[in-house]
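User: Hi! I'm a student and our assignment asks us to look at how structure tokens line up with a sequence. Could you show me two examples?

Assistant: Happy to help. In each example below, the sequence comes first and the structure tokens follow. Example one:
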Amino acid sequence: MPADEAGLKKAMRKNPHLLEYVQEFVSRHRSPPEFHPVVERKMGDEQQVNVIYPIGDPLFVHVFSTGSIPISYKSVQPPMTPDLQPKYRKVIQQVYNKAVYMDPHESVVEFEKNLLQLIDASTKISESSTDGDGKRIFGDLFTEPKIFVTQHEQDLIKYHAKLAIVLSGPLEPLLRDPYIEDIHCIGHDNVSIVHKIFQAMPTDVKFESMEELDNYVRALSERIGRPASMARPIVDGTLPDGSRINLIYADDVSVKGPSFSIRKFAEEPISITHLIEWNTISAQEAAYIWLCLEEGMSIFFCGETASGKTTTMGAALPFIKYDSKVYTAEDTIEMQVPHKVWQRLATRDFGPEESRVDTFSLLKAALRSRPNFIIVGEIRGKEGSVAFQAMQTGHPVLSTFHAASTRKLIQRFTSDPINVPITFIDNLNVAFFQAGVYREGKFLRRTMFIDEIVGYNEALGGIMTRTIFLWNAADDSHMFKGMNNSYILEEKIAVKRGYSDKRKIYGDLALRTKILEEMVARKIFKYEKVAEITKEFQKKGVSGLPFPV
């Protein structure tokens, strides 16, 4: 997509701070930035980057690098000038003084409205910004004089007050940016990100002091309802926008001071067609998962940290039959299930011991809830044994799990603290493995292999498995090794479908592969649209598709 010069001019007219920033940048680097309303993945292939993109007025992002200057991330927003800071502090103090007389707000929108009203009540617009006594306000309740400010100064005060009090302070640009995956803060002047397009890079975001970072981390923990303290220095939770956060508060635990990591929440889930387009998974592999989920197979999506296993599991959920009852149990709310009958539950790890609810308890409750599918955000401990009990009683289970191979998966499940008997392991049908790999200096996520769990071999005393898909690193392709040789397709799914000729199941696989390839070719990437097409196909067959195959 070519640079949008007209869009940049329009944005600079509306946002003087952007105009000032661009002019200063060009004067220093002699290289005008390109303005792109949408950042495309192919931009990440460029050796040099000089891109500005909007993240919601008045915020913009500038990503810049040359051969000699490493890539960096700059947030462009209305500046708080040194001259304005004393007035800002006076206004905020008056706002706090007046706020005690107002009714508590019931929503963020009302909170913001009240804040702006209090700023209006504490300031007086003047052509000159010289301080002086203004009118008294709210009758005799308040005796503080208004602060004289220009209209521009009041706008800046409102912006920074809203940023600090209602929104997320210094992190707001990073949390608002839809192209960021992860945010990492290690010390008050070290905030870095992992960008979906431009990979890892430092940012200009920082806290003025360790004390400011300390206060920010405590406020952040209180916002998620899990206050951090010296007694409870490590906190996991979910931000209001759904992002996952891990806080480490005590300086004797986090040596460089309070630190945190945020895994950004995508407002719209990534679809399976997106993953196919990015070659994270092939259309044929996705079609295989489709058949498995449609017929109630249990699958574990495995990989190391940041391998994308949770994203892939979420992208596959539309393949579950549309009329199923889905039960989710998560430590941190992440899953977005497109089914109407969805029982969504989360753990509670704070409060008195008797009031806490862990994943183990949620899974035991699931067995009494008669779900068609049980989804566990991640299996780490003893809840794994309940997951296998659920499979034994006919409840398909999906989960993510930290393991790099089927052998290591079995080792972990048959050892402490999970302790599933090895003879029970074949209740799991499929082990799906994904990893992060580097190709030509770029970090990519790939489905490494898919293994079928064939069964327990008493003579060998172990589990027999069969690899049916394998990633070829040489040409970045996904090989299907299971043609006419898939245990799950032939001995499980074909049997459930009543096929006398079990090889007919490969026709079902080919049809679903074509459907997915056609969706990618037609650029059908919206999660809801993919789910809708899948649902109509399940209800009506090929006649329910909006395109021929």
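Example two works the same way, sequence first and then tokens:
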Amino acid sequence: MENVSALRDAEKELFELTQKVAALRRDQASQEVKNYTFRSTAGAVNLYDLFGDKDQLIIIHNMGQGCRYCTLWGDGINGFVSHIESVCSLVLVSKDRPDVQRRFANERGWRFNMLSHGGGEYIKDQSVVAGEENMPGIVCYQKVGTKVYRKNSAAFGPGDEFCSMWNILSLAGVSSSDWTPQYSYWSRPEHMDDGGENIQ
């Protein structure tokens, strides 16, 4: 029972620290940013217009279709799209071309507004980690009049607070170093009733 008590105490401390972090984020000073331009399958769109009728904008920084971890985060956040969009506008950006993004999003069943920064000015200026131009993470912007301000940001990484998978696995004693996400978990059965031709 001593271990259980220590665990509960640690969980309580973590919860209290999480509340402190949330309060610090609320009080974080904002920094004005440029009205960056992105590309979609429909053409160019600027940062200001991404807000739509909302005053808050969340942009997910994704490394692109070549990252299994970024895909895991995308899969997880995808389930919250309608909930997030009741409060903020939401966009997922990556370096991939718009057509590549759309194809991959369709394959995953993602409902995000997908935009390409093409590795250009936006991601160089607005990376979640200074000096890293393709670091996954999340950024919150605010619209005040005709100006846009960066409010908060965080990097994504195994074990973080933005992907519940790691907390779930930790209950089973599985750490972030014990498991790697995959694009698909399908494996070929020993016997294929359809003959097994042309399996991709």
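Here is something you could point out in your write-up. The first strand starts at residue 31 and ends at 33.
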